Amino acid sequence: MAELGKGVSAGKIASNMQKKLTRAQEKVLQKLGKADETKDEQFEQCVQNFGKQLTEGSKLQKDLRTYLASVKAMHEASKKLTECLQEIYEPDWPGRDDTNKLAENNDLLWTDYHQKLVDQALLTMDTYLGQFPDIKSRIAKRGRKLVDYDSARHHFESLQNAKKKDDTKIAKPVSLLEKAAPQWCQGKIQAHLVAQTNLLRNQAEEELLKSQKVFEEMNADLQEELPSLWNSRVGFYVNTFQSIAGLEENFHKEMSKLHQNLHEVMTNLESHQEKPSANAFTGKAQPRKKANLFSRLRSKRSSDSSPAKANKTTTSPPDGPPATSAEEKTTNHDTEESLVSPTAAATATFFQDTPTVTVSKSPSQPSEPAMKEEEVKAAEKDAANQSTSPPAVVVETFPATVNGTVESAPPKTNMPPGYICKVRAQHDYNSTDNDELNLKAGDIVLVTQFDNPDEQDEGWLMGIKESDWLQNKEFEQHRGVFPENFTEKY
Predict the structure, then answer these.
(1) Is the dihedral of CA 134, 137, 143, 144 positive or negative?
(2) How far apart are the first and last CA of the chain?
(3) Is 439 in a helix, a strand, or coil?
(4) Residue 411 and residue 417 in contact, taking contact as beta carbons nearer than 8 Å
(5) Within its chain, how far is the Cα of 40 from the centroid?
(6) What is the pTM of this model?
(7) CB neighbour class for 302 (10 Å; exposed up to 12, middle 13-18, buried from 19)
(8) Least confident piece of the model among 25-39, 163-177, 271-285
(9) Which CATH number fits domain 400-489: 2.30.30.40, 3.30.230.10, 3.40.190.10, 3.40.50.1010?
(10) Selection from 357, 335, 352 nearest residue 344 by Cα
(11) Closest among 483, 433, 434, 487 to 458, alpha carbons compared
């Protein structure tokens, strides 16, 4: 069996080699003009169209793969860019969650776009071009069968021409064998030659019919398929580019929404940085325009409590000018009250051991007539008694601005003088002057009023740490100023 298989294989190889030699010989004869060639101009045009269509499709496939590679590269670049934004976007900035969501949606959108391009464009292109190799192989095979058909046709025609020569040979022997043979043998030899020639002619005719049938079947199929394939290119191009255009349009619409959302997030961040809220930490305290506050307050208190002022009375020495009348005193007193409270409602609070006196006078109230003699004497007596008592400390209440709002609260018995509100330190602050507080994040500060509102610098508050106040530490020694933007309302 093995030897038979080898023999069959060797015979097939020999047959194929014989066919190749025959085809090569036929082509040479056709090129030299010694043999005619069967031509079909319509089919040749179809073959040219097929070659053009294959070239265009291959180029489109190549460019589409390049486009997909570019989409993939753009996806990776966009992903890295959004990841970079996530890394540099600080946690306390507004819109942090929005940026994370935008990055996730951006990645999903690119992935979906790439996958749809593969499914609706590239795979369709691969299917379209997948039919070309088989048709190309069939066209080549049809060409070989055409050569076989021409060769068989030429062989049969040569045998047909040889028949006429054989008829002449039968009438008149020409070969030496025929001349030397006896008379009775010459007829048999001629008959044998005629029979052999007829056999060859019959075999050639069968081969011609067989090759013609194979060629015509293949030719008919290709004549039908090639024009149909050529016409299909238009619909394929339309569908392919419509799919790409539609996918790209939808992709850019969705991407435009993401870009708009990202633009809004960046705008909010910019607004937050340009106009920080009252509680926002700006990174550093506002510069103070005034010098050390407590040094000025101490010098002012020293001048206010000098013996010359302390001993000043409203009575005149015995030999001096006459005492001021009661009406003048009343007028002067009203003037002092109007200076203390611009709203015509003043409140004076005395701390330590001095009594608390509250005086309220409306500017629309008419001046009283001259006091009676008894009232004048009583007033002079009170003035004399006040001249011998220690001077009272007057603390005026003024509204203060805390974290962008005007705060004014009445004094509380368990709070320091001039208490307004509480604030919590959000960041550490190291004092740069001896009238400033050292703060640690989380410290509670009791905000108090300034002795004089003109002493308050913009962005700075006066107060004492709640821990120092609860430990009964001296208020004057432990109070100080601190930057407002390092705290928030508690």
Answers:
(1) negative
(2) 104
(3) strand
(4) yes
(5) 61
(6) 0.47
(7) exposed
(8) 163-177
(9) 2.30.30.40
(10) 335
(11) 483
Give domain 22-274's CATH number out of 1.20.1270.60, 3.90.640.10, 1.20.1260.10, 3.30.360.10. 1.20.1270.60
**Residue-averaged pLDDT of the chain:** 75
Domain boundaries, the chain: 22-274, 324-396, 400-489
**Of 315, 330, 316, 322, nearest to 371 (Cα)?**
330
**243-290 confidence digits (pLDDT tens):** 999 999 999 999 999 999 999 999 999 888 765 554 445 567 777 766
Q: What is the CA radius of gyration of the chain?
A: 59
Dihedral of CA atoms 379, 385, 389, 395 in degrees, nearest 10, equals -10
Tens-place pLDDT, residues 181-199: 555 565 665 666 666 667 7
Specify whether the CB–CB gap between 30 and 37 falls below 8 A: yes
DSSP annotation of 230:
H
Least confident span in 59-73, 105-119, 335-349, 420-434: 335-349
- Per-residue model confidence as pLDDT tens digits over 328-365: 444 444 444 443 433 333 333 333 343 443 434 444 44
Greatest C-alpha distance within the chain: 202
Contacts 24+ apart (CB under 8 A), 348-353: 348/392, 348/394, 348/395, 348/396, 349/394, 349/395, 349/397, 349/411, 349/417, 350/392, 350/393, 350/394, 350/395, 351/393, 351/395, 351/417, 352/393
Distance (Å, whole) CA 215 – CA 149: 7
